[in-house]
Design brief:
The chain has helices at 15-24, 43-60, 74-86, 100-110, 224-230, 239-255, 257-277, 303-315, 340-357; strands spanning 4-5, 66-71, 92-97, 114-120, 144-147, 149-150, 155-156, 167-170, 187-191, 202-207, 295-298, 318-319, 330-333. The chain has two domains: 15-254, Type I PLP-dependent aspartate aminotransferase-like (Major domain) (Aspartate Aminotransferase, domain 2); 257-357, Aspartate Aminotransferase, domain 1 (Alpha-Beta Complex). Helix 1 crosses helix 6 and helix 2 (43-60) packs across helix 6. The strands form four sheets. The protein has a seven-stranded mixed β-sheet, sandwiched between helices. It contains nine helices and 13 strands. The two termini are 30 Å apart. It is an alpha/beta fold. Bound molecules: 4'-deoxy-4'-aminopyridoxal-5'-phosphate (PMP). 4'-deoxy-4'-aminopyridoxal-5'-phosphate is lined by residues 9, 74-76, 101, 147, 151, 170, 172-173, 191. 4'-deoxy-4'-aminopyridoxal-5'-phosphate binds next to helix 3.
Length: 358
Amino acid sequence: MRKKNFFAGPSVLPLEVLEKIRDQIVDYEGEGLSMIEASHRGGMFEKMYDEALSTFRRLLDIPDDYDVYFLGGGATLQFTMIPQNFLIKGKKASYVKTGSWSNKAEKDAEKIGDVEIAWDGKDINYTRIPKPEELKVSPDSSYLYLCANETIGGIEWRNFPSVSIPLIADMSSDILSRPVDVSRFAMIYGGVQKNMGPAGATFIIMKKDMLEKRNENLTAYMDYALHSKEKGLYNTPPVFSIWAVKLVLDWVEKMGGVKKMDERAEAKSSLIYSIIDSSDFFTSPVEKESRSRMNIVFRLPSEELEARFIEESKKEGMLGLKGHRSVGGLRASLYNACPMEDVEALAAFMKEFERKNG
Ligand code: PMP
């Protein structure tokens, strides 16, 4: 029996995607060859890759003046590539600090150039997203950087700020969970290992005119212009990850697209938040308006009870409910592929746990 998977990433994949991989791992669509044995130049890989890029474009309604491709190196490599390309010498870049992932990105940018902190949630322990009027952004800053969903702290931007400078967002943990107006962003990127597939690939969505504003003299892999020209195939891409991403994208489309994913995210997360809100036993450290629908962070009255919750949930076949080691507590990640039945099982388990221990 499959476990109920609440891991924060790598995380749950649609069962039918795993089954398709199983069925085709040896012989891809009768080609007599596995997708992971094929050359990434031309042939069956490139055909599949182009289909993946088109489906991704369709799902997010990505305008034609944007590049879309996949790279390796994880989302973390982008923490360096973004400032190397776009933090213009003599200028600053602005960062919104909402938790662990935006902090890591900001720290890397500081090593490359001048950084302006547009807002920092440190004093309130990163429990909310700033209001637009709280952001301090110089009009001549190179770009404004934010993390759309802080996977560890469990806070998510509902509405993105309107700024006159390029807006760059890390959407590693909430891509494809809702419609996004891509045209408001200069760049959206993220690791695929939460809502899109197995670890390995990083998606890049970038307005083409950003390339005109980039720094020169970058080494080959660090230069977005090269990747734009080669659509991510300058060097060997993470082929297995990309193949699985293609299957996940097909699944999202078949399920009804990002609108449907949005409805599912709303239904699943409100079920768990309603249990937290209707009891004194469970508490959410996060401000209501900033709550993430992907990563639900919550606490119990004691660490002892939290440890028991994790132990007993494992016995019920539920995995990944331990909070990130840096913050403790509990966290349930409810990504796109997490079925409603698993969330209902978690809800029932929470109620029963409270009844026995509350
Ligand atoms: N950004 C966010 C929001 C994340 O959740 C993560 C990984 N959990 C990263 C960046 C880093 O991603 P990677 O491990 O692919 O480098």
